[in-house]
Design a protein that fits this description.
Blueprint lengths: L7 H5 L11 H7 L16 E6 L2 H4 L2 H6 L7 E6 L2 H9 L5 E5 H10 L4 E8 L3 E5 L14 E5 L4 H12 L8 E5 L2 H10 L4 E5 L2 H8 L4 E5 H8 L9 E6 H6 L1 H20 L1 H10 L5 H11 L2 E4 L1 H18 L18
Parallel strand pairs: 1-2, 1-3, 6-7, 6-8
Antiparallel strand pairs: 3-10, 4-10, 4-11, 5-8, 5-9
C-alpha cells in the first residue's frame, strides 16, 4: 500500500466547502426502524449532543450541517477530551454524548445506571504503519521498536490483550509511548526500522507526511481472531442519559435514525462530508476524505449487534485492566435496545 496517498496534497487544493452531504434525505428513507418506539421530533425540545473531535464526530457532520436555524432539533458541541463531557452529563447539561466505550462503562458504574448505550459510533481506528511492507501481522513486530500514544488507555490495553493472545509479550518488542501522534510520526522519520501504531486520522496524516510509509495492517484484523465473539473493535459509543431516554423515547429513536442517516450520507458523499469535517474543525478535508474512503471507522450500529460489539470489547478491557471499565462489567441495563 506504499505511496497510495501520493498526490493528496495537490488534490486537497481543489476541495471546496459544500453545504450538506447530498444523499442524506434518501438515507433517512432507507433506514429500518431500530426501536419499537415511533421516532419523532418533540415540539419545543432541543436535544443537546456532545461529541469528541475525531472519528466519533465525523459521522455526525451531515446531521450537524442540516440542523441549523430556529427550527433546529439538536444543539451540537465538540470537545477534545472525554473529561470535558463527563461533568456535563452528570449535571444534566448534555442529553446524548459520543465518547470512548470504556469511558461509557465507567460512567455507567459511577452514575449507577445514569447512562445507556445507543449505538457504536466508531469501529477500529488503530493501524500499524512502518517503512517495511513485509510486516503483515503481530509477528512482524518482534524485535522492533514500536511507537504509539495512549499509555494506560484503550490503545495500550488493546495491544497488551492481542500480544497475550498471540503468545507474545512486551519482551518480544520495545514499546515507546509518546504524548502526541505527531511525536510518533517524528520518531518514525528518524528511525526507518521502527514501527508505529496510530489511530485514524493520524495514521493517514503520517502517510501524507512521509510517502515512504506503508499501512501494514489494522489491529482489528488480529482482534477478530481473538475477540470473545469474533466481532469488531468498538472504539466509541453513543450514550444517552437514562432519565432523558425515559422522558423522551421518541426523540431518542429519532436521533438514532438521524445518526444512521448522517453516517450513510458521509459514506456516499465523502468529498462533501470531508469538507464539512474541516469546516467543523475536526480534521483537514484532504485527510478526512481519505479516512472515509479507505478506512471508514464511522458506524452507527444499534440493537443486538451493538450489544455484541460493546460487550466483547469491554470483556477484553476488563481482562487486561478492570479499572478501565469501572471495576466490573456493566449489566444488561447498560444497553439501550429501544
Amino acid at each position: 500500500m506504499k505511496r497510495f496517498l501520493a498526490g493528496l496534497l495537490a488534490v486537497a487544493a481543489s476541495f471546496s466547502l459544500l453545504t450538506g452531504c447530498g444523499q442524506q434525505g434518501n438515507a433517512v428513507d432507507e433506514q429500518e426502524p431500530q426501536s419499537a418506539v415511533e421516532p419523532g421530533y418533540e415540539e419545543g425540545l432541543t436535544t443537546r449532543v456532545a461529541a469528541l473531535k475525531g472519528p466519533t464526530a465525523m459521522g455526525l457532520v451531515c446531521l450537524m450541517d442540516e440542523n441549523e436555524g430556529e427550527d433546529a432539533h439538536y444543539s451540537f458541541d465538540l470537545y477534545t477530551s472525554g473529561d470535558e463531557i463527563v461533568p456535563l452529563i452528570g449535571k444534566g447539561e448534555v442529553d446524548i454524548a459520543l465518547i470512548p466505550t470504556n469511558l461509557a462503562a465507567t460512567l455507567y458504574q459511577k452514575t449507577e445506571g445514569g447512562v445507556q448505550v445507543l449505538d457504536v459510533n466508531a469501529g477500529n481506528v488503530l493501524y500499524v504503519v512502518s517503512h517495511d511492507e513485509a510486516i503483515i501481522d503481530l509477528n512482524g513486530l518482534k524485535g522492533k521498536t514500536v511507537y504509539m500514544t495512549g499509555k494506560g488507555t484503550s490503545p495500550d490495553w488493546t495491544l497488551q490483550y492481542l500480544l497475550d493472545k498471540a503468545d507474545m509479550s512486551e519482551s518480544d518488542l520495545t514499546i515507546e509511548f509518546k504524548t502526541e501522534a505527531t511525536e510518533v510520526v517524528s520518531a518514525l522519520a528518524q528511525d526507518a526500522s521502527a514501527v508505529g501504531i496510530l489511530p485514524q486520522p493520524f495514521a493517514t496524516v503520517a502517510m501524507m507526511q512521509d510517502q515512504e510509509l506503508s499501512m501494514n495492517f489494522p489491529l482489528e484484523s488480529v482482534w477478530e481472531k481473538y475477540s470473545p465473539d469474533g466481532s469488531g473493535i468498538a472504539t466509541g459509543v453513543t450514550v444517552v442519559r437514562t432519565e432523558f431516554a425515559k422522558e423522551h423515547p421518541a426523540a431518542v429513536a429519532q436521533f438514532v435514525q438521524d445518526h444512521q442517516a448522517s453516517v450513510t450520507a458521509a459514506e456516499e458523499n465523502p468529498e462533501e462530508a470531508a469538507a464539512l469535517i474541516e469546516e467543523y474543525g475536526i480534521v483537514k478535508a484532504a485527510v478526512a476524505q481519505q479516512v472515509i474512503e479507505h478506512f471508514n471507522p464511522m458506524v452507527a450500529t444499534t440493537g443486538e449487534e451493538m450489544k455484541t460489539w460493546v460487550s466483547g470489547y469491554l470483556e477484553m478491557l476488563y481482562e487486561v485492566a478492570p479499572d478501565a471499565v469501572g471495576g466490573k462489567l456493566p449489566d444488561e441495563g447498560f444497553y439501550y435496545l429501544g
